[in-house]
Fold:
Amino acid sequence: MTPEITLLCGTAATIGILHTLFGPDHYLPFIVMSRARRWSLTRTAVITLLCGIGHVFSSVLLGMVGVAFGIAVTRLEAFEGLRGSLAAWLLIGFGFAYFAWGVQRAIRNRPHQHTHAHGEGEVHAHQHTHHSEHAHPHGATSRSMTPWILFTIFVFGPCEPLIPILMYPAARSSLSGMILVAAVFALSTIGTMLSVVMLSAWGVSFARLGPLERYTHALAGATICISGLAIHFLGL
Structure:
């Protein structure tokens, strides 16, 4: 391994960790959806892992195509910018739609009273919700589609520093060096995603919101929407 590749590997690991930590879209969607959907930690880890793989390797593949066909890095950066804008708007749209659905669901499941009459004129009332009752087909569809929607969004989401800062410089040394640098970046990015998501999801699972519990879906959608807006307008 040449000194240049060694340096690039260290840079790849550092950038992979930092760009994940400073990009809320890398972990917030999984944390809030895990809480709202009551995913197990295993399910949360699998979904995060698959989305992380799609996120990183779409950019790795694009970088390899660019190197193989001699495409100028500026053209790939422009294309990655378009992908980033599209991914941000998809995140915003999904978050807003999920927020709207969550609000509707919370209103439908608001607590209400039922009055019961018994013999000898005894009457009593009890309050309840339909939170866990009446499984609806559209709810099952939403549950099954949510991971795939997240995966699609993450495939579109680019790893902006990967191609210009890491892959193209490494390619000048050797193909194997470029693959090694990309692998280090992928492992550090996905590893950081998993670490943050799993630790946070475990902690959030103990949170009890009381009367706000029925708004967890709406809160999850709002969080995802806000993270998409932060990416688009603040460049996070």
Remarks:
- Helices lie at 3-21, 28-37, 41-69, 73-108, 137-156, 162-171, 175-204, 216-234.
- The radius of gyration is 23 Å.
- The chain is about 75% helix and 5% strand.
